[in-house]
Design goal:
The chain is of the alpha/beta class. It folds into two domains: about 1-45, no CATH class; about 75-165, no CATH class. About 30% of the residues lie in helices and about 20% in strands. It has three helices and seven strands; from the N terminus they run E-E-H-E-E-E-H-E-H-E. Helix 2 (about 105-125) runs parallel beside helix 3.
Length: about 170
């Protein structure tokens, strides 16, 4: 056994020599800590990932739906803008609500997306156009605006529309 004593110059060795000294590390506590950390990380890991980032200015409606959205072009309807894949297209207060149901700026952007998807689909069918779009809207948005967004999607060939909502976490 080694005893350490305190002197003016620091610590000095007091007692027997190092013969037969048997020191061992106690790894049990450290292994327990790493096991708990590993279990926590595995429980919080999501293999699906999150392909949608909800804007802080949006409050999505709540739903009991458990269907997870699949990657597709995302139309965001905020209190100020209509956006396609986070690119602002038109301000809400600039919409002509008395005219036709289509929104020309959104229609042009969706047609561009469609032509890109069709070109990719010629090379690999998995990346082709499937007519799917995700609509993310504030829960307090007027239905007349959402109706125009949906009508524009339908006219451009995006007939498979999903509304993004907060679902049950279970």
């Amino acid at each position: 056994m080694i005893k350490l004593g305190h002197s003016a110059g620091g610590f000095k060795k007091v007692g027997r020599s190092n013969k037969g000294l048997n020191l061992s590390l106690r790894l049990t506590s450290m292994m327990d800590m790493f096991t708990i950390l590993l279990v926590f990380l595995l429980k919080s890991f999501s293999s699906e990932g999150q392909f949608v980032t909800v804007s802080p200015e949006l409050t999505l409606p709540k739903s009991i739906s458990t269907i997870k959205p699949k990657p597709a072009p995302i139309i965001s309807v905020t209190k100020e803008w209509i956006m396609l894949d986070d690119k602002p297209l038109i301000k809400i207060d600039e919409l002509d609500l008395g005219a036709s149901l289509q929104i020309p700026e959104l229609q042009a952007a969706l047609l561009d997306q469609k032509s890109i998807a069709e070109a990719l689909g010629k090379q690999d069918e998995r990346f082709g156009f499937h007519g799917k779009v995700v609509i993310m809207s504030d829960r307090d948005m007027a239905f007349a605006i959402i109706k125009r967004v949906m009508a524009t999607c339908g006219v451009t060939g995006y007939n498979n529309m999903e509304l993004l909502v907060y679902g049950n976490p279970s």
